[in-house]
């Protein structure tokens, strides 16, 4: 695999040819040696160029190819190149990328540097957020123990709340539940979604519901669906059956049509409806350029048609495209995740979830995986609303331009 790179053109060609292979090689033992050779060649390419743009591109490609992996065998030449050219580079982005790669290679020093950066309140927010993400991806318990500390910082609070889902932490539920009433609406939703990701967490959440520390109305339908899968009968005894409400969708649609007919919709308020939309729909759908990108963009959809809106609200799984079908994954460390597949290769699955637009799961970490014909959008959303909220939401969905949200 030794390849002298005597000219910029030659090593750039090498780079372009080799980088895609990092993405394609599976983690099987039979191909481990080939993967190591490819990584060694990429590191040698890094060693033979002083162009920071090329170095950055190569390392970004390597990171993308290794995404979701842990404790990858380091190429033999990595430490030499790291110390000689990358770790002391004047370009902070080069140093940051090198640090990330070293964590993939199980470098204890790189891990400690990332932890130091995470603790440093004077460090750039983007680099601290990246350090937290890479440490949690490597299942760092030390990083998990810092989440309570990070929660005190407004810019990192939401990242810290969601971080508890990545690595199970015995104190996590207590920390989150004690602060619940002081969190913003977005943060409270993240707490609920995080506590519905693991058996131990879900049990603590159920206790808080039963003790009225958290209102039942704070549990969205998609979270109730996850809690039902994790806790089974104990959750059903508290919440009731979590089942489709559209066994007769024609009657259900007719009920809501009567609710919004005639003057009822005329007297609805689109600004109030936007507030309902932000609470129930915006995490998954884009409308007027804002929102999550899990479900279809609603801006150009047939929103003027009441039948279209009601069919897709009452029975979202009636005719769901394959690209929006839900996949349920249980990891070997007990984390339950459901989302739609954004991309997949031989080593990882990338999901779009309500909580995260991009969640990488290594295939080696998957215990079970089940595809569903159901949409990610849960059924029964309208049933959780008051009649006036339904009217206001429909009024907002039928707007042709953005309106101010009621205060």
Can you offer a commentary on this structure?
With 407 residues, this protein is an alpha+beta fold. The chain folds into four domains: 8-106, no CATH class; 141-239; 249-316 and 380-397, Orthogonal Bundle (Cytochrome Bc1 Complex, Chain D, domain 2), CATH 1.10.760; 322-375, SH3 type barrels (Roll), CATH 2.30.30.100. Helix content is 52%, strand content 10%. It starts with 7 loop residues before the first helix and ends in a 10-residue tail after the last helix. It has 20 helices and seven strands.
Q: What's the overall average pLDDT, rounded?
A: 84
Number of domains: 4
Number of strands: 7
N-C termini distance: 64 Å
Summed up, the helix count is 20
Outline type: elongated
Q: Give the strand order of the largest sheet, numbering strands 1, 2, ... along the chain.
A: 6-5-4-3-7
Structural class by helix and strand composition: alpha+beta
Element-by-element helix/strand order = HHHHHHHHHHHHHHHHHHEEHEEEEEH
Give helix % range. Answer: 40-55%
The portion of residues forming beta strands comes to 5-15%
Radius of gyration, in angstroms, nearest whole number: 24 Å
> Strand count, sense and closure of the main sheet?
5 strands, antiparallel
Uncertain segments: 1-11, 20-31
